[in-house]
Amino acid sequence: MKYMMLIYADPAREPVYGTPEFEKMMSGYFALSEKLAADGVMLAGEGLKEAETAKALRVRGGKVETMDGPFAETKEHLGGFYLIDVPDLDTALGYAAQIPSAEYGTVEVRPVMDYPDAG
């Protein structure tokens, strides 16, 4: 089953770029990505640029509206994701616990919808 692991963190609590703490965090991410690939479960994974670079879009009454930044005002911002294919939720949670940002942020683990073939 496919699971999306969404990585949220408060930028104020993240290690500062260029510090030993930042390097340690990134080493943890690189090691996890290598483990997911070696275990044959990784489908995709990426970090995201800062929330301030985002655009939110919605359509209301046929009109497209765009806004700068994240749609919801929260302290924790979506900073990246992993998409994995594992047998069950417990396995997905085991991998999610290895995400470095889980130490100061939140990792949401959500099953991916499996749509039956339309054809």
UniProtKB/TrEMBL annotation:
Residues 1-114 form the YCII-related domain. Pfam families: YCII. Belongs to the YciI family. This is YCII-related domain-containing protein.
